[in-house]
Design a protein that fits this description.
Strand order of the largest sheet of chain A: 7-6-5-8-9
Structural class of chain B: alpha/beta
Shape of chain B: globular
CATH topology of chain B: Rossmann fold
Structural class of chain A: alpha/beta
Largest sheet of chain A: 5 strands, parallel
Oligomer: heterodimer
Shape of chain A: globular
Strand content of chain A: 5-15%
Helix content of chain A: 25-40%
CATH architecture of chain B: 3-Layer(aba) Sandwich
Order of helices and strands of chain B: HEHEEHEEEE
Number of helices of chain A: 11
Helix content of chain B: 25-40%
CATH class of the largest domain in chain A: Alpha Beta
Distance between the termini of chain A: 25 Å
Radius of gyration of chain B: 16 Å
Chain lengths: ~325, ~170
């Protein structure tokens, strides 16, 4: 249970308190990651199944690593090698996997709402690992964690690298998202998370990639990169999906890179000295982000990946921990010493 | 037990720890949350009597509990903070009250994931009996026979109490 919720479908339904409690738990999980023996027996005997209907390296590996560090059994299922290619439906697939008694189903799906649809029809907990253009809550959480770490480090100055993130530092900060906002589930989850924690959000990108009416969710819309990033405390560069290049949304990568990409020169001239750069990955080097910026001192992209494991450990711990609602009685599990 | 009694008990415990740990490098590890402030007090006692500064750390055993699937919701996990290699050290685990012994079992499992201590000692302020596992403390402040329906609470000023005291009261809701 994450606060009142049995599943993690998005950050929109979570309260500020529920988000902060989860992030606080991730601080303890990050300490486990850095131990000489990075394994704890917490979820021994629990099973986590990764159901991925879409390609992924970071998210799937991250959930798998998180499950294994907590001693849960992790099973990976990918649609391309499954009976989905024979025409099995989403629900039939989920029900069949559920019959093997997993405790958590981690689902990525190209259709918005697929994890919610499954969650309403199975008994185990469901974690959304990205659905269509809806939400990617674990990415939103790891971005919040990374931003809080960065803001805490900036506040402390003195070059201390390891800090305990203070999540109150997010309040009042300005975070800019650049790229294809309308297809980005990352931008959506981040928007919900950041506004709940009191930050200001700016969206910037070509007009063809900006959803209509997004201002009503609390973001300001910009069509000039310079105006969007000036004065920002952090900038999140979104990936331009190759499949959208050349179709009417944008004419080509060179023009995109010129207008919306961030390179060393623009970063040096427009960004504040402490502004951090994030990217959910995978990066198109030379398109939205030049290699010098992606690997430069402002970049916290690899920290995002490390924090991703800690955040997903916290998610799995909360979803798989606690007594099962029905089925096996609580006393059955008491046989353990 | 009042503040005076607790102070005397801790002094005696520090002396016993010193005798038992002679020769080895000492590390004091408090078990969250009751053992953390006591570990710090024992460190102060030990450094004022020996002039040496023992290492201090904190363990949170939530991830090592044996009752995760019996509880309604997953327990809160606090930070574990061991910033030194435990291998070869004499580690003193500190808790406020020992009862069933399950917390200590979990703490031992967690401790060995950090390395291989030369020796592990267990120091508790109150031993209330009622063990469910074959675990015994090495250094004890006070032994009390407390029936199951009652609970022992150690209140310290560092934890926000008005004064240091040990009280026995009827068991609360959980």
């Amino acid at each position: 249970m994450i606060g009142r919720h049995k599943h993690l479908i998005g950050l929109e339904p979570l309260s500020r308190e529920e988000i902060v409690a989860l992030l606080q738990l991730a601080v303890s999980m990050k300490e486990v990651l850095r131990r000489p023996i990075k394994k704890v027996p917490t979820l021994r005997g629990k099973a986590v199944v990764n159901l991925f209907f879409e390609a992924s390296t970071r998210t799937r590996t991250s959930f798998e690593t998180a499950a294994k560090i907590l001693s849960a059994d992790a099973l990976n299922w990918t649609s391309s090698t499954s009976s989905v290619t024979k025409g099995e439906t989403l629900l039939d697939t989920a029900r069949n996997i559920e019959a093997m008694h997993p405790d958590v189903l981690v689902i990525r799906h190209p259709a918005s709402g697929a994890p919610q649809y499954v969650a309403e029809r199975v008994g185990c907990a469901v974690a959304n690992a990205g659905d269509g253009a809806h939400e990617h809550p674990s990415q939103g959480l790891l971005d919040l964690f990374t931003l809080a770490e960065h803001f805490t480090r900036v506040r402390g100055k003195a070059g201390v690298k390891d800090v305990v993130p203070d999540f109150a530092t997010i309040a009042g900060k300005t975070v800019t998202f650049v790229g294809d906002i309308s297809h980005s589930r990352v931008a959506r989850s981040d928007l919900y998370g950041l506004t709940k924690l009191g930050a200001r959000v700016r969206f910037c990108g070509p007009p063809t990639m900006m959803p209509l009416g997004v201002e009503t969710l609390g973001a300001t819309v910009h069509h000039q990169l310079r105006e969007a990033v000036e004065g920002a405390d952090a900038v999140v560069m979104l990936r331009i999906q190759h499949e959208r290049i050349g179709d009417p949304l944008i004419p080509g990568t060179r023009e995109y890179s010129k207008l919306w990409g961030l390179n060393e020169k623009k970063a040096a001239e427009w960004l504040t000295p402490t502004c951090a750069i994030l990217h959910p990955g995978p990066i198109n080097r030379g398109v939205e982000l030049s290699p010098e910026v992606a690997d430069g001192p402002r970049s916290v992209i690899l920290e995002q990946v490390e924090n991703g494991v800690a955040v997903r450990m916290a998610v799995l711990y909360l979803l798989a921990g606690g007594a099962p609602e029905q089925g096996t009685s609580a006393t059955e599990g008491a046989a353990r010493p | 037990m009042n503040a005076d009694g607790i102070g005397r008990a801790l002094k005696r415990m520090a002396r016993e720890i010193q005798e038992r740990a002679r020769g080895g490098e000492l590390a004091i590890v408090g078990i969250r949350r009751g053992g953390v402030h006591l570990a710090e007090r024992l460190r102060q006692e030990l450094s004022s009597s020996t002039g040496q500064q023992p290492l201090v750390g904190t363990l949170d055993i939530a991830l090592y509990r044996d009752d995760l699937s019996e509880r309604a919701s997953a327990p809160v996990v606090g930070p574990t903070d061991i910033r030194f290699p435990v291998t070869g050290k004499t580690v003193v685990l500190v808790d406020d009250v020992i009862y069933t012994g399950r917390t200590v079992r979990a703490a031992l499992d967690e401790l060995v994931d950090f390395g291989r201590p030369r020796r592990v000692l267990l120091a508790v302020l109150v031993d209330r009996g009622g063990r469910e596992l074959p675990i015994a403390p090495d250094v004890v402040g006070v032994r009390l026979e407390v029936p199951e329906r009652e609970q022992v609470e150690v209140q310290l000023v560092e934890g926000g109490a008005a004064e240091d005291q040990v009280i026995v009261k009827p068991r609360g809701k959980a």
